[in-house]
Amino acid sequence: MYLKLAWRNIWRNKRRTLITVSSIMFAVVCALFIESLERGGHNQMINNMTNFHTGHIQIQDERYEEEPSLDNSIEYDSSFSERILEIDDRIYNVVPRIESFMLAAGEEQSRPAMVLGIDPEAENRLNELKNRIVAGRFFEPGDGSVVMGEGLASRLNVAVGDSLVLLGQGRFGMTASGIYEISGLFRHPLREFNNQIVYLSIPDAQWLFSMEGMITNILITPDQLKYNDPIAENLERALSDENLNILTWNEMIPELIDAIEFDRMSTRVFMGILYVVIGFGIFGTILMMTLERLREFGILLSVGMYRWKLAVIVFIETFFISILGIISGFALGLVVLSYFYFNPIQLTGDMLEMLEEMGFEPTLPMAIAPDIFMWQGSVIFVMSIIICLYPTVKIATMDILEASRS
């Protein structure tokens, strides 16, 4: 009976109810938007670093982390890749790489460069590198050509079809040098890498560095990110006797974790301020609703209705209103987040230049995850229920005669 009375009461004055529901809905949408924006930015940072740099899990020689040298390489062939896939069926992709730094030179200019020997197909499954080609084509394994970041190409004043000279040190101190045709240019999402990276096939890199049958590291991609740590543990057990080191991305780039945690703290402060503003907005609508109904409360109490029964009914009313506001906020928030998820906000002007200088993509991506909705919905719900206790307290302390004359 109390539920039925409360439900009927909230729709006796539709305008008042809709105003209160709208205020809660607005609070939920704002909180979801900010949380999704933060999560999307963090996910983009992590994806860029793992897909183009460290991988989610990395296998390397046990000495490579302390001394990242070509001398500390590991033997690799297709059978080793198949063996890794058999260790855990949750492994989606195995990406072999050879990493080193060399001097890259065009006809007139030279610059230091990060040179990566890759398997084009495995690399493309990891980061869709071929889709980032902006000029020319991607090389074929062993064809003696390279693709490079358009930023580095601009610094060297070279273009597709020109020759690129690579000069450095190979394995065990041997001289490494070669001349390669530039088959394509690509745009790396991280500006720092875009200005210094050169890709060539693993066979060409092994010849260049005098390390036939060797690579420096293997990147492992899980089919779902939540399996990252379990897969790493299985790899450690299976490869424990082979002098290999198994590292997860958060172990390889702890500074990124620190940056994300710092950003989360600043967002929490901003969210706290937002909650205060939203809380006062909700309280204003609840206060208005309570003052409008003082006469009604006074008359009900004067004809013999118990205070606690009236308080229970009013509390259930506010509970219904809070639930309606949160559900409508979820519905509208899902529409808004979905739109910006598929159409990320593109930054321009000074903001674009600033983010590119910092090495970030000039977009504001969104993330859609159930825990975002559950967390923000719970916070707004608790806040709404606390605020909605005001009518209950008012009923418990109100003067019947004064309320009846109001």
Shape: elongated
The domain count comes to 2
Overall pLDDT level: 84
Structural class: alpha+beta
Task: Give the tally of β-strands.
Answer: 14
Give me the strand/helix succession.
HHEEHEEHEEHEEHEHEEHEHHHHEHEHHH
Proportion of residues in extended strands: 15-25%
Helix content: 55-70%
Largest sheet: number of strands, sense, barrel closure: 6 strands, mixed, barrel
First and last CA, distance:
28 Å
Low-confidence stretches: none
Counted by DSSP, the helix tally is 16
As laid out across the biggest beta sheet, the strand order is 3-4-9-6-8-7
Q: Which radius of gyration do the C-alpha atoms yield?
A: 31 Å
Helix and strand layout, with pairings?
Blueprint: H1 2-10, H2 14-54, E1 57-61, E2 74-75, H3 78-87, E3 91-105, E4 110-118, H4 120-127, E5 133-136, E6 145-149, H5 150-156, E7 163-169, E8 175-186, H6 191-194, E9 197-201, H7 202-209, E10 214-215, E11 217-222, H8 228-238, E12 244-248, H9 249-252, H10 254-292, H11 294-302, H12 307-342, E13 345-346, H13 349-358, E14 363-364, H14 370-387, H15 389-397, H16 400-405
Parallel strand pairs: 4-9, 6-8
Antiparallel strand pairs: 1-11, 1-12, 2-10, 3-4, 3-7, 3-11, 5-8, 6-9, 7-8, 13-14
Helix pairs in contact: 1-12, 2-10, 2-12, 2-14, 10-14, 12-14, 12-15
